Amino acid sequence: MLYGNPSAFDSVHTLIDHRSVVNAPGIQLCMYETFERCEQVPFRTDELMFCAMVEGKKVMHHQSLQQARDFTPGQSFVIAADEQVHIDFPLATLARPTRCLTLEVDAERIANVAEQMSLSAQCSYHEQQPATLQLTHSTTTEAIYQRLAGAFTENKSDRALLIELATTELIVRLLREQDHHALLRCALHDPQATALHQVLSHIEQHIAAPLDVDTLARLACMSRSKFFSEFRRHLGMSPHAYILKRRLEHAGLMLERSKAVTETCFACGFNSISHFSRSFKQYYGQAPSTYIAQNNKREK
Fold first, then answer.
1. d(CA 223, CA 214)
2. What is the count of structural domains for the chain?
3. 236-287 confidence digits (pLDDT tens)
4. Which superkingdom does the taxonomy of this entry point to (predicted)?
5. At 213, which CATH number?
6. Counting CB atoms within 10 angstroms of each CB, which of 7, 69, 185, 212 has the fewest?
7. Together in a domain, 29 and 117
C-alpha cells in the first residue's frame, strides 16, 4: 500500500536510504527510500525500532536470523537498540523506489505502556533476548502505520502530539495482538546480556573442563574488570560462584540418575572428591552419598 511520496517534500540527496525525518518527544519517525538495486547495506539502530515496509521489497540479514528474511508490505521488523542489520534491495529503481517507514522509540516508553497493561516479559536469563522480530500487520496496525506516515504531510503545531498518540496506540495494539513476551524481551534487549549469554552457553557446553575467567572475558569481548562487573550486574554473583553453582546443579542431576560419586565429581569439572563432597554438602545440605540414598528411597 502506498503511503505517500515523501521525496516530494524532502529533496533527494542519495539513491540509497534517503531519509525524511519527523521528530516528537522520545520518538523519531523516518521514511527511507532507495532508488537502485543494492546488497548488504548496513543499518544500525540507536533505540528500539519498528520498521514497516511500505513499497517494494527488502531482504534482511542479521546474526539472530538463521537465514535471510524477505521483508514486504504488510509486515514490520522490530530491531532492538544498538543492533546492526544488513539489507538487500532487489527491486529498487528510480521509477519504483523501495520505501520503508521506521519508528524509533525509547524502550522505557514501551515498558511504561506494558506496565499500564499489567504485562511483563516472562523469561529466564538463560533464554536469549531476541534482537529482531518479524511481525505481520493486522488491519488495525496497518491503519496506524498509515496515520504515522501521514505526519510527513502534516505541518500543524500539534503534529508531535499526534505522533505520540499514534505511537502509544501502536504499542498497545502490538502488545495485545502479538506475543507480548517476545516483544518486551526485544524492547529490553541488552547487548551486554547477549555477550554474557554466549558465555553462559560456553560454560554449559564445557562444564567438565577447566573454565578460565580471562578466556570467558575475551569471549564476551570485555576487559576482566568489565566482565566481572557486568556478570555480577546480570547474574547477581561472581563468575566463579556461578560456575560452581552450575557444576553442583549438574552433579545433583547426575546423582539423581544413580551415577557414581566419583564419576559425577570429574564429569562436573571438580578435581578432587574431597572438594566436591564439601561443596556439595554446603550447597545441598547433605553429602553426595546421602543425597543418592534419599533419592533412591523416594523412587521406591
1. 8
2. 2
3. 889 999 999 999 999 999 998 889 999 999 999 999 999 999 999 999 999 9
4. Bacteria
5. 1.10.10.60
6. 212
7. yes
Compute the mean pLDDT over every residue in the chain, rounded to the nearest whole number: 85
**Distance, C-alpha 210 to centroid of its chain:** 30
**More confident of the two residues 33 and 7:** 33
- Determine what percent of the chain is predicted with pLDDT higher than 70: 86
Residue closest to 134 by CA, chosen among 188, 189, 81, 62 = 62
* HEC assignment per residue over the chain: CCCCCHHHCCCCCCCCCEEEEEEECCEEEEEEEECCCEEEEEEECCCEEEEEEEECCEEEECCCCCCCEEECCCEEEEECCCCEEEEEECCCCCCCCEEEEEEEECHHHHHHHHHHCCCCCCCCCCCCCCCEEEEECCHHHHHHHHHHHHHHHCCCCCHHHHHHHHHHHHHHHHHHHCCHHHHHHHHCCCHHHHHHHHHHHHHHHCCCCCCCHHHHHHHCCCCHHHHHHHHHHHHCCCHHHHHHHHHHHHHHHHHHCCCCHHHHHHHCCCCCHHHHHHHHHHHHCCCHHHHHHHHHHHHC
Same-domain pairing of 150 and 106: yes
Beta carbons of 224 and 213 less than 8 angstroms apart:
yes
pLDDT of 48-67, one tens digit each? 899 999 999 999 998 878 88
Look at residue 1 and tell me if it is in a domain: no
Question: pTM of this prediction?
Answer: 0.60
